């Protein structure tokens, strides 16, 4: 038998990708302004290298919209509000719309109170956490983001019942001359979106991402339903990641009256049910604690200390959180955003079903 010929990835510009997503969402029933917001955030995810949370989700979103799983014209509204806090009901709208609104409210409140926390209920998947944690940066604020994942792939430490998700956390710290520090991570060794991306690209997963129910390594992403993600710390110290996932779930979900534990809907297999996804965002106004420029200069100095510190043998460079995504953004702005062949076929199918011009 001959060696199979691998199809090359296609590359598209940020503008073309955003326009394609916006047209698809508009055809699916979103008002044009809402479709534009969601499309920009989805394309931004791909631009920064968060491939598991960008346009790869469009076929799934389309299925959910057609099945009634999303409300395409939501009444996103405040349920409770105090000077420094708010609870936002997303009315089952797309999570990108809900969390953008939540970030805007948190920023506005933090101007007056110094620190603000906004929780959401009845939201949905919103893409990578860093999209929202970074929104306060433009206002000289620190951003924090917490979320309950949209499917449970993690049992309690030592258990088998899937009661926790990847439950991501993100933090964004502004700097001066340096780029901001941006941490975006799941509480599992790998986010489930990365598993999906591996499957789309026909690649195997590294050992240590998932195990089967007998505790053996699972490396075929197409068999992901047969196993479980490992928490941060892996087999040696996974109790730490398990504990962190639980706490983030309580903060992002339970505190705001959103789903957590056994109440989480697996939106990978259920297109029609309301997920009641919970997320939370906090904004910290640096000016409430001191001089903004002094703070940024201190962050710059720390970044340079880390970057210029002595390296172990074989280590070429020491990075700080956020540098890789910044480099990916620059490269993809210049060269285009790669689209795997399997994903392109799925997007072509969406285009055919909606009667729009294909992405490529």
UniProtKB/TrEMBL annotation:
Assigned keywords, A-Z: Oxidoreductase
Family annotation (Pfam families): Ldh_2 (PF02615)
Keyword Transport: no
Family membership: Belongs to the LDH2/MDH2 oxidoreductase family.
The name this protein goes by in its record: Malate/lactate/ureidoglycolate dehydrogenase, LDH2 family
InterPro entries membership: Mal/L-sulf/L-lact_DH-like_ah, Mal/L-sulf/L-lact_DH-like_NADP, Mal/L-sulfo/L-lacto_DH-like_sf, Malate/L-lactate_DH-like
Segment forming the signal sequence: none
Single GO MF annotation: oxidoreductase activity
Xref: SUPFAM superfamilies: L-sulfolactate dehydrogenase-like
């Amino acid at each position: 038998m001959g060696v199979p010929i691998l199809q090359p990835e296609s590359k598209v510009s940020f503008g073309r990708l955003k326009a394609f997503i916006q047209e698809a969402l508009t055809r699916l029933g979103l008002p044009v302004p809402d479709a534009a917001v969601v499309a920009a955030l989805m394309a931004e995810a791909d631009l920064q290298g968060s491939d598991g949370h960008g346009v790869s989700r469009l076929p799934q979103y389309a299925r959910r919209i057609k099945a009634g799983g999303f409300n395409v014209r939501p009444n996103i509204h405040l349920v409770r509000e105090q000077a420094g806090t708010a609870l936002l009901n997303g009315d089952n709208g797309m999570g990108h719309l809900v969390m953008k609104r939540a970030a805007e409210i948190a920023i506005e409140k933090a101007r007056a109170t110094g620190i603000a926390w906004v929780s959401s209920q009845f939201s949905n998947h919103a893409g990578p956490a860093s999209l929202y944690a970074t929104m306060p940066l433009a206002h000289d604020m620190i951003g924090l983001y917490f979320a309950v994942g949209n499917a449970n792939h993690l049992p309690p430490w030592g258990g088998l019942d899937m009661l926790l998700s990847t439950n991501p956390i993100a933090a964004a710290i502004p700097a001066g001359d340096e780029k901001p520090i941006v941490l975006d991570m799941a509480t599992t060794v790998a986010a489930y979106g990365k598993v999906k991306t591996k499957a789309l690209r026909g690649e195997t997963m590294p050992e240590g991402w998932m195990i089967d129910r007998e505790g053996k390594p699972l490396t075929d992403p197409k068999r992901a339903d047969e196993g479980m993600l490992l928490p941060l710390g892996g087999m040696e110290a996974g109790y730490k990641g398990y504990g962190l996932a639980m706490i983030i779930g309580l903060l992002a979900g339970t505190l705001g009256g959103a789903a957590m534990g056994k109440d989480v809907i697996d939106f990978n297999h259920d297109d029609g049910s309301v997920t009641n996804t919970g997320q939370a965002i906090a904004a910290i106004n640096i000016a409430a604690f001191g001089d903004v420029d002094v703070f940024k200069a201190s962050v710059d100095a720390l970044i340079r200390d880390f970057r210029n510190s002595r390296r172990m043998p074989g280590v070429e460079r020491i990075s700080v959180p956020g540098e890789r995504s910044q480099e990916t953004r620059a490269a993809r702005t210049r060269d285009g955003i790669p689209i795997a062949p399997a994903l392109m076929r799925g997007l072509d199918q969406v285009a055919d079903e909606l009667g729009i011009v294909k992405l490529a």
